[in-house]
Design brief:
Length: 289
């Protein structure tokens, strides 16, 4: 019984999506600590715990609400067949309650840190739940841009725990990188699961505009990532060198898509490389800031 409930929560909170949204907030926090040469011990018993627990609860709450709002389309897709909204192992009312309660508690914890962190958390939550899920996902192919904006505020939120002024080149560059990164990452998922999205009626780019257009957009966004570091100052020469090698490597992966005979196999490579890319970016920032 307990194991079944925990398994339902794993599907409800989309385990890997939860991690992918909380991890940038924690990295943003540690990058700020490194930049300002502050001790982690000053935060470990207070703000770090609030950030970790608060961001996890807020993201989990938003994902539960996303499940509740999309229960009808989830029933049409293979990739979502194990979600409790589909299996019926949890009532929709229970899922709605979980989503609301976790969101509220998560926000309270983030506001306890400071107003900036709380506001950034709310912006991310509102953009994902209301603007992305309710308004754009069923209507427009550019829904991905909205979802990307939501995810892009997370490292800025982590930075704001240490320094409330986020008008700084480092959190700004992390926001831009996260925004641009999420487009190819999401396109890779949409290509791999295009049949599911076609059945669901969700307005995903590969379904509406086709694979070639999606690959072209992928190359454009990764191309912007190649250019981005050179539009920023205050970094060392080694930073530009290492991150450029990483960006060019991922750009080559994007270009391979134009000639790939099996687009879904290529999309799988793009998806895996996107995860490696993002983790590498944060590590590079931690080393070179």
């Amino acid at each position: 019984m307990i194991l079944r409930y925990l398994l339902d929560l794993k599907h409800l909170f989309k385990r890997f999506v939860l991690i992918a949204n909380v991890m940038p907030a924690l990295f943003g926090f540690f990058i700020a600590l490194k930049y300002y040469e502050l001790s982690f011990m000053e935060y470990i018993g207070g703000d770090f715990v609030l950030l970790t627990v608060g961001s996890n609860l807020l993201v989990a709450g938003s994902l539960a609400l996303n499940n509740w709002l999309e229960a009808d389309v989830d029933r049409l897709m293979e990739r979502t067949k194990d979600r409790p909204t589909v299996t019926g192992s949890m009532s929709l009312r229970s899922i709605l309650t979980i989503g609301i309660v976790l969101s509220i508690i998560g926000e309270i914890l983030l506001f306890t840190i400071n107003i900036e962190v709380g506001l950034l958390g709310f912006i991310g939550w509102y953009t994902y739940v209301v603007v992305y899920t309710v308004w754009t996902k069923r209507r427009f192919t550019w829904n991905t841009h909205v979802g990307s904006f939501s995810g892009a505020v997370t490292p800025v939120m982590g930075w704001a725990v240490v320094e409330t002024s986020t008008l700084h080149v480092i959190p700004f560059s992390l926001f831009l990188i996260m925004f641009l990164w999420q487009m190819p990452h999401t396109y890779a998922i949409a290509i791999r699961k295009s049949e599911d999205y076609a059945r669901s009626g969700l307005q995903m780019l590969p379904v509406i505009k086709g694979y070639q257009t999606t690959i072209r957009r992928t190359a454009i966004y990764i191309g912007l990532l190649v250019i981005l570091p050179f539009m920023l100052d205050s970094f060392s020469m080694f930073f530009y060198l290492v991150i450029s090698v990483l960006n060019i490597g991922w750009f080559i992966v994007a270009l391979i898509g134009f000639k790939a005979s099996d687009k879904k196999k290529w999309a799988r490579v793009l998806f895996v490389s996107s995860l490696i890319y993002l983790l590498s970016v944060f590590i590079i920032y931690l080393i070179f800031v």
